[in-house]
From TrEMBL:
Pfam families, sorted: ATG22
Major subcellular site: membrane
Record's keyword annotation contains Transmembrane helix: yes
InterPro entries to which the protein is assigned, alphabetical: Atg22-like, ATG22/LtaA_families, MFS_trans_sf
Protein name per Swiss-Prot or TrEMBL: MFS transporter
UniProt xrefs under SUPFAM superfamilies: MFS general substrate transporter (SSF103473)
Protein's cellular compartments: Endomembrane system
Keywords: Membrane, Transmembrane, Transmembrane helix, Transport
Highest taxon in the source lineage: Bacteria
Length: 463
């Protein structure tokens, strides 16, 4: 099969596109186990509990530990360790992922890269099982490695969207991928909820049940990645330019990256979208990664209640992603994203005023998050795919992925700093409004249709 036969969706027969799209969805299903069970629900509260035990031995749940951990000579509050760890992993991602994009565009077999990153990340996620007692240092290292690999795999995965879906079909395909992922993550989370709820009957402690749930997410990620890696293996052939191809993998990637940053100035609307996305996605990702911490430490909910909440969000987000994908056909992705950001502001304000222990209203907030979560993320991905020049998808998606789910750093840094100074998660959560407002303002001023044409692409019917 030649490069021209496989490089882009319009080069494929409809039946081949449909086959590849079905296999492509499975990686959303696979990685959502990590994004949900580990990143969004269990790891932040669990790492915080381990850190608090290390700094304040014997401390009761719900009590504030005011003894700092010594992290490379810096005093860090145990309650800030998890958000700061995510911040560090994101800063590293910003440096590493841009090189991943350059290499991926030059790879003859991009799905091999997808598998390598996914299985390395899954192995790190499985090793989280061994975080116990006061071993918060191991937890920090494993979270950083797994987040880096998660982001690297998503650079390759997102860039493949251009090869399997033409412009008018990308909102639908991207939304279905997100929906499939939320459903898969929800299925595993439901199984983990059973383990957490029945840990006494199963003869294990709550801590052991949490660790088994963390292990299951790594195994799920590794196992289901086999389907897209095998199913998309026909997508061979590099899309790098001939000049860059002749330079070799490493040097050629550096040349391409230098060219990417230089060329980005030629696409001001693409750059403005990226900056807008940086802000509003940081807000979204920080809410996702910090919601369980906020629910446990500030509102006093149990691990079971937090899993129920995220489980609800997962299945509502399944429908929300499909709904936004359908509405985008009529109203356009840009307008739908802006509507979603307005709803995000309302959710954050409601969370700030929510009294402790009120589980019913907390679940209502979960429904609100689920409706807008999948839709805003899926449409952002498909809209951005039209704003990048042909042949540079992975490079440009590496910039996008540096700000993607699980890799926000402005938000987590602000969240951790506010808690470090005020010891209040309520003040931390309300501070995130600034990201939605700034991101929405920049997106509203972005001429998306002009940006698509400037990148050399044909705009879809509505954008």
């Amino acid at each position: 099969m030649t490069e021209a036969d496989t490089a882009y969706a319009q080069d494929l027969e409809p039946a081949s596109r449909e086959y590849l799209q079905r296999r492509w969805y499975w990686y959303d299903w696979a990685n959502s186990a990590y994004a949900t069970t580990i990143a969004a629900v269990l790891i932040a509260p669990y790492l915080t509990a381990v850190a608090k035990e290390a700094a304040c031995p014997g401390i009761a749940d719900g009590e504030t530990c005011r003894t700092n951990l010594d992290v490379l000579g810096i005093g860090i509050a145990p309650g800030s360790l998890a958000p700061f760890t995510i911040t560090v992993s994101t800063l590293l991602s910003a440096l590493v992922l841009i090189f991943v994009g350059g290499i991926a565009d030059r790879s003859e077999r991009p799905t091999r890269l997808l598998g390598a990153f996914a299985w390395t990340g899954a192995a790190s996620a499985c090793l989280v099982y061994f975080i116990a007692g006061t071993s918060w240092q191991l937890g920090v290292v494993l979270i950083i490695v797994s987040n880096l690999c998660f982001g690297a795999s998503m650079v390759v995965y997102d860039a493949l969207l251009v090869r399997i879906a033409p412009p008018d079909d990308r909102d639908r395909v991207s939304s279905r991928g997100w929906a499939f992922g939320y459903f898969g993550g929800g299925v595993l989370l439901a199984l983990n909820l059973f383990v957490l709820s029945a840990h006494d009957a199963l003869g294990m402690s709550e801590g052991t049940a949490v660790r088994i749930s963390l292990l299951s997410a790594g195994l799920w990620w590794a196992g289901f990645t086999i389907i897209p890696v095998r199913g998309l293996r026909s997508l061979t052939g590099t899309v790098a330019t001939p000049a860059a191809r002749s330079a070799g993998v490493v040097r050629g990637s550096l040349v391409q990256l230098r060219s990417t940053f230089g060329e980005l100035r030629r696409y001001p609307q693409t750059l403005q979208f990226l900056v807008a996305y940086l802000f509003f996605n940081d807000g979204i990702q920080t809410v996702i990664s910090s919601a369980s911490l906020y629910g446990k430490e500030e509102l006093g909910f149990s691990a079971n209640q937090l899993v129920i909440t995220i489980l609800l969000v997962q299945f509502v987000a399944f429908g929300g992603a499909l709904l936004f994908g359908r509405l985008a056909r009529t109203y356009g992705a840009t307008r739908l994203i802006l509507w979603g950001l307005g709803l995000w502001v309302l959710v954050v304000v409601a969370a700030f005023f929510l009294p402790a222990g009120r589980f019913g209203p907390w679940l209502a907030l979960g429904v609100g998050i689920g409706i807008v979560l999948g839709g805003t993320q899926a449409l952002s991905r498909s809209l951005y795919s039209q704003l990048i020049p042909r042949g540079r998808e992975s490079e440009f998606f590496s910039l996008y992925q540096a700000m993607e789910r699980g890799t926000s750093w402005f938000g987590t840094l602000l969240f951790g700093l506010v808690y470090q100074l005020a010891h209040s998660y309520r003040l931390s959560i309300i501070a995130l409004i600034v990201f939605f407002v700034l991101g929405g303002t920049l997106l509203a001023r972005c001429d998306v249709r002009a940006g698509i044409r400037a990148a050399g692409n044909t705009p879809s019917r509505v954008v």
